[in-house]
Write a structure and sequence with these properties.
With 660 residues, the chain is of the alpha/beta class. The protein folds into three domains: 151 residues, no CATH class; 120 residues, NAD(P)-binding Rossmann-like Domain (Rossmann fold, 3-Layer(aba) Sandwich); 237 residues, 3-Layer(aba) Sandwich (Rossmann fold). Helix content is 50%, strand content 14%. It has 22 helices and 22 strands. The chain is elongated. The N and C termini lie far apart (105 Å).
Length: 660
């Protein structure tokens, strides 16, 4: 390599390093003041003749006065902080404020002194000319710096062409910023307008084209682009079906945080490209954001001791985070999973350092261990999220499902009464409705137990008693055991993506939304209720898999295959939120309803629970499942080894009918 070439490369590298380093703000302020001083010198020297011997007429004194005012208003409006910025718009706005307020103040001073001294020391016209000169030169300086910055840093940088969604001011600002971002990764080649306005026009060199779902492929082909970039504020538009139009045309989707999310005082160091992220299926399936601002929750949980079982799970850990925002006095975390509990502890210590937590490793079926916790901390509120929930696994292990989901719940519920807990909120599942599997039936039995326990208290206790509340909802996005993490892993591995059945559908909601509704339902409940949540529209799992493949920039059935594996043991095509014989009653919350369910006498339930325990002790699994079906008559097994018991029960019922 020649010496000349090395010297040239070293100079270029130095220039890039220099350009990449944000100019100190004092240098920008100094440059602005030099511009104002030069404008004053030019005007006062060549456009204004000296008058008399009064020192106030001297150009130096006038320049000092003008410079002082411009300096004060520069500090006020921070115009010197925007030398290399997201857009020129912010520069124009702040410099215009600086010039306008400085000029207005000077004019006010002129008239004020004229009233007092009967002399006019400044020409109003000259004040205006100084303002125009200063504004023009300040903007030219900034534009020159921006241009040089782009020219130096942009040399040899290859950017990915993208089309930006929308033609409103935010979309324009983002497109312009990305286009001028020298070391960025994206080059906006067009704005895709969702309205009829501003069509076939160009803004800052970026053409605006009309959104037409029929010719999306042609639009992207015309601009030699395969990627759409949109703002996070436009997510609701994407959820309305617009996203599917792009995905079906093999357009990759990228999302950028909204402009207002950036810190205005530190925009000089912003690299917009780093805020662009791949859109996830959770973004498209999610609903409006949940805000923890319910005064009822604040009123009940503030300064209280709260116990959460299953605290290391997807639902339990989110309940922990949300309860922490309501200033609970102490949060007791109970789980038997050591590693997830350790990770949760680290997360809380890092993100919510002021919350008072106590961690306990323990199994909810261990009555002595659980009683130690209740006896020591006397919780007022219990959120019971611990459970076994994998349907096929529980189908093969009925005794463990009953031990944890029924007897574990019984242990915590009984201790809640013994230690005067105010409210016990049990987290159930839509699989408890017309259950077709061991897991769903075990959760339904747990529901029956806590509800009958509450009504029994009402009959036998005077005064205060523990209020038992149950909440039911479907699948949550991204939870442990959810299909979404599995699909994502399968896509990363190159496929295939496996679905059990092409027509299977499920309800989904986000983990934060589900937990927020659990807290709201728990706080509004008076005891004995089974709350169900508005889960929105059901989603076909096959379509979910297709969308996730498309979001990864791949083609379903071409790049990644979707394979049907058949329904798993105990699995059904359609989940329900209500029993066929059940009704719902509205509450004050539009997303929360009360299910009117069949109630059971506590003595009868206790008898059934004792039978279950006896069958487990005797390792009589067949009799265990049969007893479950006696307790929950609507429990009809599907695609399961336990279907034989349904046939036995049907034969038994037929024989009874004949005898009658």
């Amino acid at each position: 390599m020649s010496r000349r070439l090395l010297l040239r490369l070293s100079r270029l590298s130095f220039m890039r390093l220099l350009a990449a380093t944000p100019a100190p703000r004092w240098m920008v302020l100094l440059a602005d003041m030099v511009i104002v001083a030069l404008s004053c010198v030019l005007i006062f020297t060549f456009n204004e003749a000296p008058k008399g011997n009064n020192i106030l007429y001297a150009p130096i004194i006038k320049t000092a006065i003008v410079l002082g005012l411009y300096f004060i208003f520069s500090l006020k409006f921070k115009s010197f902080q925007y030398i290399v910025r997201l857009s020129v718009i912010e520069d124009i706005y702040r410099i215009a404020l600086l010039v306008a307020m400085s000029s207005f103040t000077l004019v006010a001073m002129v008239f004020g002194t004229e009233v007092i001294t009967h002399e006019r020391y400044f020409s109003i016209w000259n004040i205006f000319i100084i303002g125009v000169f200063s504004f023009t030169l300040m903007m030219c300086m900034r534009l020159a710096v921006k241009y040089l910055y782009t020219l130096i840093n942009g040399a040899g940088v290859v950017k990915k062409p993208v089309i930006v969604l929308g033609s409103a001011i935010n979309s324009f600002v983002i497109a312009s910023a990305l286009k001028n971002e020298a070391d960025g990764r994206f080059d906006p080649v067009a704005l895709l307008s969702l309205s009829e306005k501003k069509i076939d026009t160009t803004v800052n060199g970026i053409p605006i084209v009309k959104y037409d779902p029929e010719i999306i492929a042609q639009i992207f082909e015309k601009y030699k682009c395969d990627t759409l970039l949109f703002l996070s504020t436009q997510i609701e538009i994407m959820r309305s079906g617009v996203a599917d139009v792009f995905l079906n045309n093999h357009v990759k989707l990228l999302m950028l945080n909204q402009v207002e999310e950036f810190d205005v005082d530190d925009k000089s160091n912003i690299n917009l490209s780093t805020h662009v992220q791949n859109i996830k299926i959770e973004d498209l399936l999610g609903r409006e954001a949940i805000k923890n601002n319910n005064p009822l929750i604040e009123q009940q949980l503030c300064n209280q001791v709260v116990l959460i079982t299953g605290a290391a799970g997807s639902i339990g850990s989110e309940i922990v985070r949300q309860v922490a925002t309501f200033n609970a006095k102490k949060i007791i975390l109970v789980d038997q999973a050591e590693t997830p509990m350790h990770e949760l502890q680290l997360s809380i210590e890092e993100n919510i350092p002021n919350v008072n937590i106590e961690l306990f490793i323990g199994d909810i079926t261990n009555a002595k261990r659980m009683e130690q916790i209740f006896k020591q901390y006397r919780p007022r509120y219990v959120f019971h999220a611990a459970a076994y929930k994998h349907v096929p696994m529980m189908e093969s292990n009925p005794s463990e499902a009953i031990l944890t989901n029924v007897f574990g719940t019984k242990t915590i519920a009984d201790l809640a009464i013994k230690y005067n807990v105010d409210k016990f909120v049990m987290i159930s599942t839509d699989k408890a409705v017309n259950p077709t599997n061991i897991m769903g039936a075990s959760k339904r039995i747990a529901e029956i137990y806590v509800q009958s326990l509450f009504f029994n208290q009402q009959k036998t206790k005077d005064g205060q008693y523990t209020r038992f509340i149950t909440t039911r909802f479907g699948n949550v996005l991204g939870s442990n055991g959810s299909v979404i993490p599995r699909f994502r892993q399968q896509i990363e591995n190159g496929g295939p993506v496996t679905v059990t059945h092409r027509d299977i559908i499920r309800y989904f909601m986000t983990i934060p939304e589900a937990c927020q509704l659990v807290l709201e339902a728990g706080c509004m409940g008076n005891g004995g209720e089974i709350y169900i949540f508005d889960m929105g529209k059901p989603i076909k799992i096959y379509d979910l898999a297709s969308r996730m493949i498309s979001l990864a920039g791949l083609r379903p059935g071409v790049d990644i295959q979707i394979v049907e594996t058949g329904l798993r043991p105990g699995e059904k095509l359609f989940e329900e939120l209500l029993n066929d014989k059940e009704r719902t009653m509205a509450t004050t919350h539009k997303k929360i309803m009360i299910a009117k369910v069949r109630t059971y006498e506590f003595a009868e339930v206790e008898s059934h629970i004792s039978q279950l325990k006896q069958h487990i002790d005797n390792d009589s699994i067949h009799e265990l499942v049969m007893t479950m079906k006696h307790i929950v008559p609507e429990y009809i097994s599907q695609n399961s080894q336990w279907q034989s018991i349904d046939k036995e029960l049907n034969t038994e019922n037929d024989n009874q009918s004949i005898n009658v």
